[in-house]
Please model this.
Amino acid sequence: MIRRILTYPDPELKKKSAPVTVITDKTRELVRDMAETMYAAPGVGLAAPQIGVHQRVIVIDVSGKDEHPALIVAINPEIIHTAGETYEEEGCLSVPKYAANVRRHAEVVVRALNLEGDEVTWQADGLLAVAFQHEIDHLDGILFVDHLSPLKREIFRKKYRRIAEGLQESA
Ligand code: NI
Model:
């Protein structure tokens, strides 16, 4: 089922998510809904709190348009190693119609559980490394715009107020 994606400045997006203690049918249903919602948007990643569920679950698919879908499901994801630095443009389904460059680690190693409860490790660079950092941030109530400098964030707030008003008119 496609779920409604919460958008900035919804306070639910600022809350910290709790670890998943046991993987149940509810978890599997949550992941199915998250994947469906992400693909429908479309987006390359989605974190559970973006649909109002405060559990540490993320889905990512950075495969290109002409490639086979490659869904990553990460439960209780943790960044266990980082290297380098990158500064790429990011967007977010919870901050529609806005993009900005964000400083991130260029490479990350992420450890998580899959839906079977097995430990999985990803060694990621490029877009996947950025996506992992962006989605794991969501689990801690952090949006990509929180990484902007105070001046840039002020410009964002002003600009976004106008974008949000426009969204309300078209809704
Ligand atoms: Ni996001």
Summary: Helices lie at 25-40, 126-139, 150-170. The chain has a mean pLDDT of 95. The radius of gyration is 16 Å. Residues 92-94, 134, 138 surround nickel (II) ion (CB under 6 Å).
